[in-house]
Amino acid sequence: MPPTAQSAAPAPAPAPAPTLAAVSGPDTPLTAPTDAEAPAITNETLEQSTEAARAAGLVAARTWNETSGYNRWASGPLAADGTAHFDQDHAHASHWPFVLAAASLCLFLLIQTTWHFRTQIVMRLPASAAWYAALAVDVPLPRESELVSIESSDLQSDNARGLFVLNALLKNRAAYAQAWPALELTLTDVNDRVVSRRVIHATDYLPTNASSAFPGQNETLIKLWVEARNIGAAGYRLYIFYP
C-alpha cells in the first residue's frame, strides 16, 4: 500500500524583524511634538473637569453639599479695608466693654461736676435748687470775697471793763445772698507791731436772730466786745475774708 501522503503542517509565518528604536543620547536633539500629537485643548470648566475625573474613577465621588452652608468654589470681591467678612461680628462685639467703660467714666465725671459746682449751678439755674433738695444734697451759699467789704470800722477802749469795742459796717455788693464772712482783728502797739491777732466768725459777731445768709446789696452793722488786757495795744487792723 503506497504510503499515505500526510498533510504537512503550515509553516509559521516569519516574525517581523525587530526594529531598532532610536535611543536619545546626550547629543540627540529633542524635538517638540507636532500639532497632530499635541492634546486637544477644550474649554471645560472646573466642575466639568472634576465630573469627568470622577467618571473615569480618578476622583472619589463626593457630594457637593455634604457640608451645609459651605461652597469651596465660592468667591467674591475683597472689602476695601482688606478684611472682607472675616470675624466681623467678633470685632464689633469686642468694642462694647470699652464703650461701657467710657460711658461710666463720663457719667461719673458729670456727677462729680454737678456736685462740686452745685453752688454756681443753683446761682445760674435757680430751679435746680429743687433737684438738689429732692436728693438731700446741701447747697452752700456763695462765698465771693471780692464782693463783700468793710465800709467803715472803729475800735474803742472800754477802760471800765478792760475791753475793746469793735464797730464795723459790712456790705455785700453782690446781687444775691452770700454766706456771712469772717473777720480777722489784729491789734498793734505804738510801733505798729502785732501784739494780738484773732479770727472772728459769724457766730461770734451776729445776733441770735440774724438771717442765715448775708442778703444781696445789703449793709449790716456789727458790734463786738474784745478782751485784750495789759497787752499794750495802740492800734488795729481789720480784714474780711471767707475761710
What do you see in this structure?
- With 243 residues, the chain is α+β, with helices and mostly antiparallel strands.
- Among the domains are: 105-140, no CATH class; 145-241, Immunoglobulin-like, CATH 2.60.40.3230.
- Helices cover 23% and strands 21% of the residues.
- The chain is built from 6 helices and 6 strands.
- It has a 3-stranded antiparallel beta sheet with strand order 1-2-5, with no helix packed on it. The chain has a 3-stranded antiparallel beta sheet with strand order 4-3-6.
- The chain is rod-shaped and about 135 Å long.
- The termini are far apart.
**Strand content range:** 15-25%
Shape: rod-shaped
Quickly name the level 1 CATH class of the domain at 145-241.
Mainly Beta
Summed up, the helix count is 6
Unreliable residue stretches = 1-9, 18-24
State the secondary-structure class.
alpha+beta
Q: How many whole angstroms does the radius of gyration measure?
A: 56 Å
User: What is the end-to-end distance?
Assistant: 168 Å
Which terms would index this structure?
243 residues; Immunoglobulin-like; 3-stranded antiparallel beta sheet
Topology of this protein?
Layout: H1 46-55, H2 88-93, H3 96-116, H4 118-124, H5 128-134, E1 148-158, E2 163-172, E3 182-188, E4 194-200, H6 202-205, E5 218-227, E6 235-241
Antiparallel strand pairs: 1-2, 2-5, 3-4, 3-6
Give a brief outline of the structure.
The chain has about 240 residues and is of the alpha+beta class. Helix content is about 25%, strand content about 20%. A hairpin with a 5-residue loop joins strand 3 (about 180-190) and strand 4.
